[in-house]
């Protein structure tokens, strides 16, 4: 597979991933697993802590400020087993979807 075809293949895979409903299905699986693991509660607690720590400047805090503060924590605190499972599901989809000649 040449480097020239890689962007086209990626775009086609992404289009199929979305159109097939697989992206939506995996997003729902991810949401469910994160909720079951307590991850959502930890993120909510982190957001509440941020608001509490900045309570004197509430009128100056934006959603972007909170996202900037919480996003690194949120990403790093996703349980490794959940990351691995979702990545494996994505890999399996790619291998099912790619034409044999492109693998």
TrEMBL record:
The keyword Cytoplasm applies. It comes from Coemansia thaxteri. PANTHER family: ENHANCER OF YELLOW 2 TRANSCRIPTION FACTOR (PTHR12514). InterPro entries: TF_ENY2 (IPR018783), TF_EnY2_sf (IPR038212). Component of the nuclear pore complex (NPC)-associated TREX-2 complex (transcription and export complex 2), composed of at least SUS1, SAC3, THP1, SEM1, and CDC31. TREX-2 contains 2 SUS1 chains. The TREX-2 complex interacts with the nucleoporin NUP1. Component of the 1.8 MDa SAGA transcription coactivator-HAT complex. SAGA is built of 5 distinct domains with specialized functions. Within the SAGA complex, SUS1, SGF11, SGF73 and UBP8 form an additional subcomplex of SAGA called the DUB module (deubiquitination module). Interacts directly with THP1, SAC3, SGF11, and with the RNA polymerase II. It comes from the Eukaryota. Belongs to the ENY2 family. This is Transcription and mRNA export factor SUS1. GO terms for biological process: chromatin organization; mRNA export from nucleus; protein transport; transcription elongation by RNA polymerase II. One of its GO terms (molecular function) is transcription coactivator activity. HAMAP family: ENY2_Sus1. Pfam families: EnY2. The keyword Transport applies. GO terms for cellular component: DUBm complex; nuclear pore; nucleoplasm; P-body; SAGA complex; transcription export complex 2. The lineage of its organism: Eukaryota, Fungi, Fungi incertae sedis, Zoopagomycota, Kickxellomycotina. Keywords: Activator, Chromatin regulator, Cytoplasm, mRNA transport, Nucleus, Protein transport, Transcription, Transcription regulation, Translocation, Transport. It is found in: Nucleus, Nucleoplasm; Cytoplasm, P-body. Transmembrane segments: none annotated. Involved in mRNA export coupled transcription activation by association with both the TREX-2 and the SAGA complexes. At the promoters, SAGA is required for recruitment of the basal transcription machinery. It influences RNA polymerase II transcriptional activity through different activities such as TBP interaction and promoter selectivity, interaction with transcription activators, and chromatin modification through histone acetylation and deubiquitination.
